[in-house]
Each structure stands twice: as structure tokens, then as C-alpha cells.
Amino acid sequence: MPDAYGDDDGELLQSFVIPIGSVEGVRPGTEFAVYDPDGAVVATLVARTVRINEAVLTSEEYEPVVLPLGARAGVINWRNEDMVLQIYISPEFPYTTELFPLVHTDVPHRYMQVDSLEKAQLSLTHIGDGVVLLRWLAGAMARGPHSERRFTAAGVDWPSILDALSHFHYFLELTSGSTLTAFSLEMHRLLGEYPGRMPDRSGDNGGNLIQDGCVHLRSREDAKYGFTMRNSWYEELFPYLFYFNPIEYTIRRWFVPESAHRAPLTAAGTVVVGMGSEGAFSFTLPPGDTVESSSGFVKMFVSTVYLDLGWIEQRVSPFDDKFHDSGRLFSSREQLETGEGWNSLCVFLTMSNGESGS
Questions:
Q1: Residues 192 and 340 in one domain
Q2: Cα separation of 342 and 53, whole Å?
Q3: 97 to 89, 149, 157, 300, 301: CA distances (angstroms)
Q4: Does one domain contain both 220 and 262?
Q5: C-alpha distances in angstroms, 151 versus 235, 251, 296?
Q6: Can you tell me the distance from the alpha carbon of 251 to that of 173, in angstroms, rounded to the nearest whole number?
Q7: Looking at the structure, do residues 44 and 24 belong to the same domain, yes or no?
Q8: What is the model's pLDDT at position 281?
Q9: Residue 345 CB neighbour total at 10 angstroms
Q10: pLDDT in tens, 129-172
Q11: Tell me, what's the pLDDT at 9?
């Protein structure tokens, strides 16, 4: 750290490096608050130089600051409006005060109210007897079969739910303007039994079930599936695979690299998930005749450097009473930045009880 001086009470710093950068959403101008061990704000720092996996912070006036021992930093302004969910609230909505409580929080909420449906990504309407209709108006969720959800408002922690919905929507829609596009995802029905399951490559497209970014499956308990992440680029990549559940608003991690020291997806190579001795994937509807179809999203990220993307996970539904204890509310890294070092693709998966499908 340049121009750093230590003493018995803390450190006097003019600038220092933090190990998060543009991938985590830091951009020039991102503001950080520094807290002492008792939670009091002792300094405000600004990101000046940002690389893919690190950033250099200084005070606003480039003056040295004293950082007490045991201090921690947290983002107080990301400087990125794309991560804020735009919500339209019907005029008669009785829970507006709960949505926007007059209580200070260290991290601003990830949603804001807009004045028309045309500007909104999500709408909330009170339909009577304490029941609220949530309706997606933009993005993949608006086009799928789970664009609406009804729930009882009694006891709802509105800020927590809306922040979680914003998190889900942001990462589901997220893509990059990167030229890094020479990668793909394949999905195959598996043949054989554990631990020797192999992909069925018969039929069109080598048995790959993904067609134009979509897969349609028939719900069958005996059907097992696996995925192949393929690199057609000349450089090795770090791949990541997640499943977005649009019913529960959960995000599950299916594959992340084991180490930052070796990229699993070698040049012109592949990584398989759910095959061989690994647990395979099955997609079935709940028993009974009430549910005829369902859907989900499989999303693949790739990066030229190792990224700690475990914080994307949202393992517990925000509508579940256990959500507060899941740790999701306390994540401080909330976004990826567009750029040359990473990219993603998303597959829309539907399931039905009908005769059609794989």
C-alpha cells in the first residue's frame, strides 16, 4: 500500500487496494463507508482506479485518513441504477409505509417507486382481504408462466422481500457487452446408471436438448440430465453454473471452480456437470393434477479470471420464514459490471405433464 504509515492506534493511509473490482460492481466513484469496531463511521472513501478484481480507494480530497484497527468497509453508493428494481404501486395499496420505512440503513434498498406501469419492472396491487398480487412487467419473468404471484401480506418484511426480488431479477437479466462469446452450454438426457451415466448424443444436434436458448421437458421421474459447458475460445476460462427458480425466487449454485489457481474450462475444452459419478439432475412436477407446467432458468457465467460468485446464491425463498437466518440479507457484494473479462448466457427450461418434450 503506497504512503501507508502505522501507529499504535491504527493506520494512516493515503490510498490502499481492496481485492474487489469491476466484477463485483465497483466502478470509479463507488463510495465506501469505513466503520470502527463499534459500528461508527470514521471515514468515507472513493474508488479511484478500478480493475477487474481490485480497486484503489482514497478519501474524497485525497487526504490521508486514520483507519482504526479492526475497521471494516461497506459500499454506501454503487453508482449503478441498473441494479435498482423499478416498482409501480397501485394507488390504493395499503402497505406503502412498510415498503419505504423511515429508518436509516447502512446499505440503501435495491428498489424504488415509479409513477407509471410503463416505467415499472414489477407491480404490486392489493386485491382485497390482505392479499397482494405481484406481477412482473419486464424481463424473462414477465414472459414466463410464473409472471404473477399472490401472497398474504400479514407479517411480511417488505424491504427484505423486495431486496431479494431485486437481487433475483438483476442476476437473471444480467449480461455483458463483452466480446467474450465463444462458449456454450449443452444439456443431454443421460443413459446408464450411476456412477456411469453418459450423455445420449443421438438425434439432432448431437442430442443437445437446448434449442435457441430453450428446453422443453416432459415430467418423468426416471429421466436424468446433465450439462456440458464448452469453450471454443483460445484462452482458458473459469465457468459457473446457477439455477434460478422463478416460483421460490431462489438461486442455487450448480458449479463453481474449486480453485483460483487453475481454470477448469481449458482452451477448446469442456466441463461436464451431473454426469459420471456426479449426481444427475431431474426435473419433475409435484404429484397431482393441479400443476400442469412449470419453468426455471439455467444460467452460465464465464470469466477470464477467478471470481468468488458464491454470494449470488439465494438458497432460501424470501417468502420463507427462514430467509432472515439464511445469511442472504448480509451480503455486501451485489452486482457484476459489464466489461471484457466475463459474460453469461441463460437457458429457459419448461416442464409439463404433456406428451411432448424430451
A1: yes
A2: 12
A3: 12, 21, 12, 38, 38
A4: yes
A5: 48, 20, 20
A6: 13
A7: yes
A8: 93
A9: 16
A10: 999 999 999 999 998 889 999 999 998 999 999 999 999 998 99
A11: 46
Coil, strand or helix: which one is 134?
strand
- Total number of domains constituting the chain: 3
Helix (H) or strand (E) holding 15: strand 15-18
Query: Per-residue pLDDT for 104 more than 90?
Result: no
Query: Band of the pLDDT at 276, cuts 50, 70, 90?
Result: confident
Length of the chain: 358
Question: Rounded to an integer, what distance in angstroms lies between the CA atom of residue 171 and that of residue 23?
Answer: 13
Surface-to-core class of residue 342, CB atoms within 10 Å of its CB (0-12 exposed, 13-18 middle, 19+ buried): buried
Q: 125 with 96, same domain?
A: yes
> What's the pLDDT at 75?
76
Measured in degrees and rounded to the nearest 5, phi and psi for residue 294 equal -155, 180
In three-state secondary structure terms, 131 is strand
Residue given cell 471470481 in the structure block = 307
Please state the pTM of the whole predicted model: 0.81
Neighbours of 179 (CB within 10 A): 8
Question: pLDDT by residue (tens digit) across 27-62?
Answer: 788 888 888 888 888 889 999 888 766 788 888 888
Integer Cα distance of 242 and 347 in angstroms: 11
Secondary structure (3-state) at 315: coil
Q: Are residues 205 and 221 both part of a single domain?
A: yes
Phi/psi for 295 (5° steps) reads: -155, 170
Q: The C-alpha cell of 55 is what? A: 480497486
Separation between Cα atoms, residue 21 and residue 305, nearest integer Å? 12
- If asked whether residues 56 and 72 sit together in one domain, one would say yes
Task: Report pLDDT for 49.
Answer: 86
Mean pLDDT of the region 98-112: 73
Residues 6+ apart with CB under 8 A from 304: 52, 180, 235, 237, 238, 341, 342
d(C-alpha 101, C-alpha 111), whole Å: 13
- Give the residue from 52, 79, 106 where a domain finishes: 79
Nearest Cα to Cα of residue 203 among 188, 222, 221, 218: 188
Domain boundary, last residue among 141, 173, 205: 173
> Residue 319: in which H helix or E strand, if any?
none
pLDDT confidence tier of residue 121, bands split at 50, 70 and 90: very high
Q: Which domain holds residue 98?
A: 82-173
